[in-house]
From TrEMBL:
This is TetR/AcrR family transcriptional regulator. Residues 17-77 form the HTH tetR-type domain. Residues 40-59 bind DNA. GO terms for molecular function: DNA binding. Keywords: DNA-binding. InterPro entries: Homeodomain-like_sf (IPR009057), HTH-type_Tx_Regulator (IPR050624), HTH_TetR (IPR001647), Tet_transcr_reg_TetR-rel_C_sf (IPR036271). Pfam families: TetR_N (PF00440).
Length: 214
């Protein structure tokens, strides 16, 4: 479904932020629906309902538009990552998971796009954008957070703990719809909130050290 067209979008925009936002949304839709190589500047502009010249005006190229789309889609999540440095227990970690669910509830196909591009060869430019703007930051921030805290139960491997947390966070969005339907898992706000509370319970009772006051 295309974004409603902006009839006034010719040449330089009269409402810059609005046109730029439309291009980010349109790029996300196009890259989710088609392979990167098949998405053209013209098709993104058509989806956004703006002049194709605005892509070069705002971003310079398709690659830079793609990078901007990835960064801006995940920005609320990485803002939550910054709070990890202030957290003194595993609430910081569950805060990241909660924000991830909130963001991806709006863009449920985005994790599948990330998974698809992350599976490309390492020398692929789209793979490098995903790796540099997402995975390196995630692994660095969460690894530092987990290793700097003392909330894991004895015998829990921190690296495997990170792998488990990432799996329970991302997998609901990339699993085949048939499996979600079979297990009654939805991607609506209420279903994701229920899943989040379930995951917090699993972490608290299976992976995290029991608080001394309990």
């Amino acid at each position: 479904m295309s974004i409603p067209k902006d009839k006034n979008a010719v040449g330089r925009p009269s409402t810059p932020s609005h046109s730029r936002e439309r291009l980010i949304d349109a790029a996300r839709n196009c890259f989710v629906q088609q392979e990167y190589s098949k998405v053209s500047i013209r098709s993104i502009a058509k989806e956004a309902g703006v002049d194709a010249g605005l892509i070069r005006y705002y971003f310079g190229s398709k690659d830079k538009l793609f990078s901007a789309m990835v960064i801006e889609t995940t920005q609320p999540i990485f803002h939550e990552f910054k709070q990890l440095k202030k957290a003194e227990n595993f609430d910081g970690l569950t805060g990241v998971m909660h924000r991830y669910y909130q963001v991806m509830q709006k863009y449920p196909d985005f994790p599948l796009l990330v998974f698809r591009l992350a599976s490309l060869p390492e020398n692929n430019s789209e793979h490098q954008i995903i790796r540099n703007n997402m995975f390196r930051k995630i692994e660095s921030d969460i690894s530092s957070y987990i290793s700097g805290q003392d909330f894991l139960r004895d015998g829990i491997n921190p690296s495997l703990a990170l792998f488990s947390i990432m799996s329970m966070t991302v997998f609901p969005f990339i699993m085949p719809p048939m499996i979600r339907e079979q297990h009654g898992i939805g991607l609506d706000e209420a279903s994701l909130e229920q899943l989040f509370q379930h995951n917090v319970s699993l972490l608290k009772h299976g992976m995290m050290r029991k608080p001394e006051h309990d």
